[in-house]
Amino acid sequence: MPRLQVGDWINSGVNWLRDNLSWLFDFISSVVQGMYDAVNTVLGAPEPLLFAGILAVLAWWLRGLVPAVLAFLGFALIDSIELWGEAMNTLALVLVAGVITIVFAVPLGIWASRNRAVSAVIRPVLDFMQTMPAFVYLIPGIFFFGLGVVPGVVATVIFSMPPGVRMTELGIRQVDTELVEAADAFGTHPRRTLLRVQLPLALPTIMAGVNQVIMLALSMVVIAGMVGAEGLGSTVFQAISSVDVAMGFEGGIAVVILAMYLDRMTSALNQRVSPLARRALAREQAKALSGFKVLRWRPATSVAMVGVVALALVAGGMHVFSGDEDDSKVSADVGKGQSVNIGYINWDEGVASTFLWKELLEQRGFKPKVQSYDVGALWTGMAAGNIDLQTDGWLPATHAAYWSKYKDKLENLGSWYGPTSLEVAVPSYVKDVKTLDDLEKKSSTFKGKIIGIEPGAGEMKLMQDKVMPAYGLNKNFTLVKGSTAAMLSQLDRSYAKQEPIAVTLWSPHWAYNKYHLTKLKDTKGAFGKGDHVDTIARKGFSQKNPQVAQWMKNFKLSEKQLTSLESEIQDAGKGKEQQGVRAWLKKNPGMVNKLAPVPGADQKGKDAGAAPKIGYFPWDEDVATTYLWKNVLERRGYKPSIKQYDVGSMFTGMSSGQVDVEFDAWLPVGQKQYWDKYKENLVDIGPWYDKTSLDIAVPSYVKGVKSLADLKGKGSTFKGRIIGIEPGTGQMKMLKNKVLPAYGLDKEYKVSDGSSPAMLAQLERSYAKHEPVAVVLWTPHWAYSKYQITRLADPKKAFGANNEIRSLGHKSFPKKYPEFYGWLKKWHMTNQELASLEQAVQEAGKGNEEKGVQKWMDAHPGIVDKMAPVAS
């Protein structure tokens, strides 16, 4: 009988649907993804134990006190094994898939119960949907919706729908026909008969169907982890692929707890929604008022809702006020928060290189997301544009089939490791087996098995299609399909017992360091000449992400670097891959800049290690620029120390060499007296900001005061006070000795000594109350942006000429710190740069100046190179 090409027909149909109904699949994808994101956000927002309390209250309402306590303990256990986020992802998937399934299943069941022709058509379709292996639904899901949540939800809906339809139809058909006939006899409309008679009586059976829908949805959601659906499915899939007993058991326990909770709660929900069940529950509660029977008492719906709402409000409040933690420090914000989706196969070099780049990209300001996939799903997802890149493409041999199929939709960003080799290996204690030719004659020794890895791996296809036929191994040997971790586990067991075993391996691999193995020679060259490990990206990635693409093109690791990185990750353990990467980076200083270079980032200066002493005044521009230079110098390898001084103390300390440098000298007028006194022991490094002025300012709502001359006769308006700053500043001395006498204000006004923060606080209080106030200010200052204030004109030029802000140092500074001196000589800031820097420091708050500076530097990439250039 000729072969029917059923598979080809289905494949053609799937391709036609994908090409012609892409708009529909995009719409479905947007709706499902939006539903999942909304539910997942709600479930993930509260603190774990508070949300566990909410779920426990629901359990108390539905089943009683003991189930509520057990539910809380179960979810607390999930939190303690650090799988809370994954569990909530899974719960979101189940809820979304369950709701969609019920919305379609119940109406279909009602329709089938009222129309036997519909029932006859639907029944075989449901049989097909329920008996088709669950994994099969993932394949068209990937083609239509790509990878991630949506194909998982859609496949789950299809797989879990049959019991919902069947149980709805069954429940309605089991309703006593005499009751239906009686309703008809009284002239009841069929719709009212359905809603008032059939559905209430069928509700227990329908709810049993809902329970089965939820359970099947949960089982399918775990399977959907293979295609990148988030949650416990991904955890279990990783555990299976790596034969990690601990991870698998923990993931399995979390699934069991979630399944038991959903099963018990949905089965008990019937007692709350069915009228008959509610009456039975009321009778039961009436008896449960004494002794241990009180444990079966359940709160009324209103009481339970009050408890849930109260806990939800507390949980939401805690989430609002909680801060986000980020372990990776952004060293150069190149990415500006741009996301990069990286897929990987659970192979050692793939895991190592993926989490290495996750760390590097986070340090460069990107937001990478990494996800483990099966080989076929990874390449398919990349071709569909759902995954941006992967770092474990073995070409030209191992992944040749995938590259040949998808190369028009992909970009090869180059090789980062090579050459590699694929091989079959045996323990060295197995004698007389040195080549693949020798293996053919030893079938009984190895029990006719060669232990392989993932069935979708290129090496497995190469083994089956070329290597085994070339050496006649396909006659006497079976290639056992499994996973890399399963193969290594079997190798470890056999090696411990000194039993013969043949495994598929590749070089480089840490197994050759751990065990004494013989790499069987490929005398016929069936494995090919060896691969190189390439970085593969979706088409268009280089154009959208040119910086990342360039880094990837230049990415290289030696065998020593790769194996040491793999070792650190192995030592860190599952789930702590990034910690292993950070440990490796600490042992390999300079790798961040080498692999992801940003011009000048973290390059060491010629005088790295020098420790200049920097002084500053508590003035906004001085605080901001001092902490800025502290950050820049530390990146250049310096060890600066900073200390706050009064103006007079600063000049005295700098003239004696106790302070090396400061950045806030207002000259030639503002601090002239100090310069004149100490200039023989100082050096003027040069101006970094010009066009400054010393001012008196008043709020703009104070009418008739536009100049210093207008203050005369208005002493009572301002209570005879001008709010000043630090008494030792040149501006304060000039104001008292020159400015006020010049305008005849010295007898009418008293200048209040204080500090810049005190002056600003008084300005803010008076401004809020709309009270007149006159304050000592200067330009530039952020207060002119925050408040509507008038800078009083100085027609007599009593404040003198405009100042420049200059850097001053001890006379030994140029020789002691020549590189730093050279940077300061060329340093200059614009008004916009200084104002935004001051604002960032102000917003960070007292004690957080370094964070404010870092935020500003992240928004000004290249500022380190601009201020402190280092010749390469």
From TrEMBL:
<feature type="transmembrane region" description="Helical">
    <location>
        <begin position="201"/>
        <end position="227"/>
    </location>
</feature>
<keyword id="KW-0813">Transport</keyword>
<feature type="domain" description="ABC transmembrane type-1">
    <location>
        <begin position="87"/>
        <end position="266"/>
    </location>
</feature>
<feature type="transmembrane region" description="Helical">
    <location>
        <begin position="134"/>
        <end position="159"/>
    </location>
</feature>
<keyword id="KW-0812">Transmembrane</keyword>
<keyword id="KW-1133">Transmembrane helix</keyword>
<feature type="transmembrane region" description="Helical">
    <location>
        <begin position="49"/>
        <end position="78"/>
    </location>
</feature>
<dbReference type="Pfam" id="PF00528">
    <property type="entry name" value="BPD_transp_1"/>
</dbReference>
<feature type="transmembrane region" description="Helical">
    <location>
        <begin position="90"/>
        <end position="114"/>
    </location>
</feature>
<feature type="transmembrane region" description="Helical">
    <location>
        <begin position="239"/>
        <end position="262"/>
    </location>
</feature>
<dbReference type="InterPro" id="IPR000515">
    <property type="entry name" value="MetI-like"/>
</dbReference>
<dbReference type="Pfam" id="PF04069">
    <property type="entry name" value="OpuAC"/>
</dbReference>
<dbReference type="InterPro" id="IPR007210">
    <property type="entry name" value="ABC_Gly_betaine_transp_sub-bd"/>
</dbReference>
<comment type="similarity">
    <text>In the C-terminal section; belongs to the OsmX family.</text>
</comment>
<feature type="transmembrane region" description="Helical">
    <location>
        <begin position="303"/>
        <end position="321"/>
    </location>
</feature>
<keyword id="KW-0472">Membrane</keyword>
<comment type="similarity">
    <text>In the N-terminal section; belongs to the binding-protein-dependent transport system permease family.</text>
</comment>
<keyword id="KW-1003">Cell membrane</keyword>
<dbReference type="InterPro" id="IPR035906">
    <property type="entry name" value="MetI-like_sf"/>
</dbReference>
<protein>
    <submittedName>
        <fullName>Glycine betaine/proline transport system substrate-binding protein</fullName>
    </submittedName>
</protein>
